[in-house]
From TrEMBL:
Belongs to the sigma-70 factor family. ECF subfamily. SUPFAM superfamilies: Sigma2 domain of RNA polymerase sigma factors, Sigma3 and sigma4 domains of RNA polymerase sigma factors. Keywords: Sigma factor, Transcription, Transcription regulation. The keyword DNA-binding does not apply. Transmembrane segments: none annotated. This is RNA polymerase sigma-70 factor. The lineage of its organism: Bacteria, Pseudomonadati, Bacteroidota, Chitinophagia, Chitinophagales. Coiled coil: none annotated.
Length: 213
């Protein structure tokens, strides 16, 4: 909740006072998540970065006209989505790509051994594959809720669907994720050597906390 208040405060200073320092903070706060979101629609991260950059530039150029925007974060997500869809109309090859979590992605823990590190990376890789294998809208909804911490109502606004649809898609995603991940979770648990068993269990629990419930 505090984060939303800060974003709105920054937005007010940007649109009413043309405060460039506030815009810089605003950019660094939202840019990584917007780029990650955009890569769910376009094929290359570089393209996503350019699209997001264009949206931010337009926001700054039109800042005075945008004083009435009440939810700047939602507004930017919608703008990025629309730009990405327009990009896709111009280029025929479009696919959902796996997201790179090297910056601020889901972190499990510091592993105690190379073996544990490999187990952790494999589980994260399999989980990302499972998410990416979901139908595109379902995958996007899952990531917005679980990775961005958005409420169903916010996701509904961004994707122009009903909160009920978001809820239904999340239930479908959770069921498919459970089926997809179960073999790997069981395998990791069976293979855990005595000294690292607790670490493996901690990793598995962290994954399931990330996935919900």
């Amino acid at each position: 909740m505090q984060k939303e208040v800060n974003i709105n405060d920054l937005w007010e200073r940007i649109t009413k006072d043309s405060d460039s320092k506030s815009f810089e903070v605003f950019f660094h706060e939202l840019n990584p998540r917007l780029v990650k979101f955009c890569t769910m629609y376009v094929q290359y991260q570089q393209v996503a970065e350019e699209i997001v950059s264009d949206v931010f530039v337009k926001c700054w150029m039109d800042r005075v006209k945008m004083q009435d925007v009440q939810k700047p974060e939602t507004y930017l997500f919608i703008a990025v989505k629309n730009h990405a869809l327009n990009y896709n109309k111009r280029f025929s090859s479009v696919q959902l790509v796996n997201l790179d979590d090297h910056e601020g992605g889901t972190q499990l823990m510091t592993s105690a051994s190379p073996e544990m590190e490999l187990e952790k990376k494999e589980l994260l890789f399999r989980m990302d594959q499972a998410i990416s294998s979901l139908p595109r809208q379902c995958s996007i909804i899952f990531r917005l809720v679980k990775e961005n911490g958005m409420k169903y109502k916010e996701v509904a606004e961004i994707l122009n669907i009903s909160p009920r649809t978001v809820h239904t898609q999340m239930l479908r995603a959770m069921k498919k994720m459970t089926v997809a991940m179960e073999p790997y979770l069981k395998k990791a648990a069976r293979q855990a050597p005595g000294s690292t068993a607790d670490s493996i269990v901690t990793a598995l629990l962290t994954i399931w906390i990330f996935m919900g419930n």
